[in-house]
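Fig. S4 source data, part A: sequence.
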Amino acid sequence: MDILKILNDLRAEREHIDQAISALEALGAGARSEVSPAQKPAKAAAKQTRGGGRMSPAARKRMSEMMKRRWAERKKKQKAA
């Protein structure tokens, strides 16, 4: 296998992909300006508001202890190797 040929083929493919991305971005930019916020689907609004998922102090402490144990085990394995 000729590595230079493979590199050239990959570069050419990357160029085609970059051109396709640019074309799609140009189409997307035009489409975005035509859609008003009132026309956006309800899912888009739901995605913007990410809520909750906060850890309680007890859960945070448990996670901290677990991670400390995990890292201690990892250090032991590295020293043994």
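Fig. S4 source data, part B ends here. The chain has a mean pLDDT of 80.
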